[in-house]
Fold:
Amino acid sequence: MQKTSLKRKLTATGVALIAGILYCSWPLEYVVNPTVTSHHGLASELGSPGQPYWWLFNLLDIISSLLILGVAFMLWRIVKIKKQWFKVAVMSYALFAILTIVDALLPLHCLPSTGQCGPLIDDPLIVAHGVASIGAGFVLFISTLAVWRLCQTANLKRFKPLMYAVLAGWALFGVSSLIFLFVKGPGYLAQHYFITFCSLWVALVPFMILRAHTQPNFSFASLRSKN
Structure:
């Protein structure tokens, strides 16, 4: 029984690692689409129909998202006692995958970096793509807060620096995005950083959740008393 449980945990962690690697596909642009790179275009432009290997970037997003959904399902089966913050962490993790799939299935049909797109408000497809993309980032941030609360409840002192680093990573992206919203600059670099950061977190989520779950002094029942 213990061997089966350990195998499931290792499988969930390994699949999440693969999903994180596949999700971080933007470095491929330097090989397959240097034009978007030279225009400092957003990563979403790589998946725009008509661009070289546009289907590959969307396919990688979909595959990585399906793997994330698989990890969420495995976590749900592994953890028997499911309390508030565990549910929030796993459900937001899964919702990130669903919104990423929607984002990939609604690719941009123009390149904003080259001025080909008209007013965004007049283009429902771009609006839907943007809403799905922003929503995916938001729910992944929610998963970070939920896992942070799990680690606090489990008293995982050794992982405090890691969680503070993750939260600092979110703060850095927020500040940089806010700056580039008002000041013209390399906003594409902020997006590349964000995708890489999300990939790392996607790979870490099951490890952190399972580590909190197996902590000797940890009890999911204690979550209610601390809320």
Residues 216-227 have pLDDT under 50 and may be disordered. The radius of gyration is 19 Å. The chain has one domain: 2-226. The CA atoms of residues 153 and 222 lie 7 Å apart.
